[in-house]
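Render this sequence as a predicted structure.
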Amino acid sequence: MDSTSQELKHRATTTTTEDQSPTLQPNTKTQKQRIPTRGIRSLAVGIAIPLALTLANISIFGWNRTYRTIHKPFWVPPLWALHLTCLGSAFIMGLSAWLVWAEGGFHKNPSAVGFYLGQLGLSLAWDPVFFKMGAARLGLLVCLGQMATMWSCLKMFGRVNRTAGDLVKICLVWSGFLTLVNLYFVV
């Protein structure tokens, strides 16, 4: 066995001694590999809460006989596709918010969490406004507000974690399309 493969087997890790100066110690096979369960749990919660809220919102407010029966152009999605994409958007926004939280972005910039919660609230407000109240004009204002808060999330999240910012772009595109669908019903 050559010395290179021997070094790979015994990689050194940095540990801190009592005087807080780092020292190098070799890994041993008896050391337990710790699974980051706290991170996995926080990720699950960060995704599950917006997903569950969106699912509950869809099941309570998201069904409208008029939307299903009215003649729509080809580019307006069927109701099931609309709701499925809203669920996907909630999942992606939850993931991007978790990425920012995991890097301490909400502590560094507390307004980012405000914009995230604002976009979540506006996305939850759209179904009751558009489907239950039948207020397409007010729904359009909700969509525009959601796009504005998502744009702010994009800027703030992107400063903390580039991947989180890129994920928000997907949701921003969906929100823009949803605004066009809503605009069709206003005109």
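Summary. Residues 5-12 have pLDDT under 50 and may be disordered. The beta strands are 12-16, 22-26.
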